[in-house]
């Protein structure tokens, strides 16, 4: 994380940027080093050794989210080839729990940032809209582990959910020629209104459990 002389200032800067305490930053730094095999940067293949992600049906989207420049709050678009510890902390800050002393404005910003991160996972082509195809793909991936559900059923569920989202955002759709282009981020905020994303959005692989290395 830096030399002994620069560590306190660096720690304060990271705490101010991410909201983590110094103890949490130290813990995450150990986790980062464990994941990266003591390298200064993480690449996508380093996540191959995370047990909690191994059987996750949207594993690829979760890993990709760590390298999405939109989530890293960078001006460029696209995906980064690797991330450093500060980038890793930035991503992990989206999963922080609510702080008891947050006021209403802080809580709203906290919630919006979490939902923006989630929106980016759906918006795979980075155009600011979640299309039916993108939404369907995620739903099918989520349901792919269910042996009792056929692919056609997953597609129907995705279609129904998309129509429900459209009715929430633009009112009841009428007429055979009416086309709903997709979900914007403002639409996404409406859809998730009243859903407790603040406590539901978390990651398990922060734990320092032993990692099984791939052969």
3D structure, described in words:
The protein has 215 residues and is mainly alpha-helical. It has a domain at 1-100 and 201-215: EF-hand (Recoverin, domain 1), CATH 1.10.238.10. The chain contains ten helices and no strands. The protein has helices spanning 7-18, 22-36, 51-54, 59-67, 85-92, 104-122, 132-143, 151-170, 185-191, 197-200. α4 (59-67) packs across α6 and α8 crosses α9. The radius of gyration is 19 Å and the shape is globular. It starts with 6 loop residues before the first helix and ends in a 15-residue tail after the last helix. The model is unreliable at 2-6 and 206-215 (pLDDT under 50).
Q: Characterize the main sheet.
A: none
Structural class: mainly alpha
Overall mean pLDDT stands at 79
Fraction of residues in helices? 40-55%
Strand content: under 5%
Give the low-pLDDT segments. 2-6, 206-215
The radius of gyration is 19 Å
**What overall geometry do the principal axes of the alpha carbons give?**
globular
Just name the CATH architecture of the domain at 1-100 and 201-215.
Answer: Orthogonal Bundle
- The ordered string of helix (H) and strand (E) elements is HHHHHHHHHH
Domain EF-hand: 110-145
Subcellular location: Cell projection, Lamellipodium; Cell projection, Ruffle membrane; Cytoplasm; Membrane
Family: Belongs to the calcineurin regulatory subunit family. CHP subfamily.
Keywords: Calcium, Cell membrane, Cell projection, Cytoplasm, Differentiation, Lipoprotein, Membrane, Metal-binding, Myristate, Nucleus, Protein kinase inhibitor
């Amino acid at each position: 994380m830096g030399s002994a002389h620069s560590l306190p200032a660096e720690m304060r800067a990271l705490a101010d940027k991410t909201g983590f305490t110094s103890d949490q930053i130290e813990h995450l730094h150990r986790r980062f080093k464990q994941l990266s095999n003591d390298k200064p940067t993480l690449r996508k293949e380093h996540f191959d050794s995370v047990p909690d992600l191994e059987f996750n049906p949207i594993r690829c989207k979760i890993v990709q989210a760590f390298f999405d420049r939109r989530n890293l709050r960078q001006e460029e678009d696209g995906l980064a080839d690797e991330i450093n510890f500060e980038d890793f902390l930035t991503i992990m800050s989206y999963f922080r729990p609510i702080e008891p002393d947050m006021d209403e404005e802080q809580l709203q910003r906290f919630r919006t940032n979490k939902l923006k991160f989630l929106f980016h996972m759906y918006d795979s082509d980075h155009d600011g809209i979640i299309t039916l195809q993108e939404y369907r793909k995620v739903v099918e991936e989520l349901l792919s582990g269910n042996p009792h559900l056929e692919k056609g059923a997953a597609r129907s569920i995705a279609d129904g959910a998309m129509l429900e989202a459209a009715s929430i955002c633009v009112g009841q759709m009428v007429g055979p020629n009416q086309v709903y282009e997709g979900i914007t981020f403002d639409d996404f905020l409406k859809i998730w209104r009243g859903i407790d994303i603040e406590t539901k959005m978390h990651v398990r692989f922060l734990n320092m459990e032993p990692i099984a290395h791939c052969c």
